Request: fold
Amino acid sequence: MRSVINELWHGNIVSQEDSRNNSKEIKELLGYIARHHENLSKTFTDEQKEIFEKFHDCWDEYATLSEEAIFCYAFKLGMKVAIETLIA
Reply:
């Protein structure tokens, strides 16, 4: 069995994929988002569609940066707890 560090290095652990879609509530919410997005897009002019896509691009970038920051914070917090446990 490989260590967690090796698995991370080789890209076998992808926290974004492992944590995002694993609950019933999130799957349901993603379905609602997709349906509303499709219905809303049908009502847009070409110019509005372009603006909406730019909004999506910005939102995706924000979400990626936010998820990275949360992951880093949680990882560091977990390490602090582990260190404190070892030295206590």
Summary: The helical segments are 4-9, 15-20, 24-42, 46-87. The CA atoms of residues 15 and 71 lie 8 Å apart.
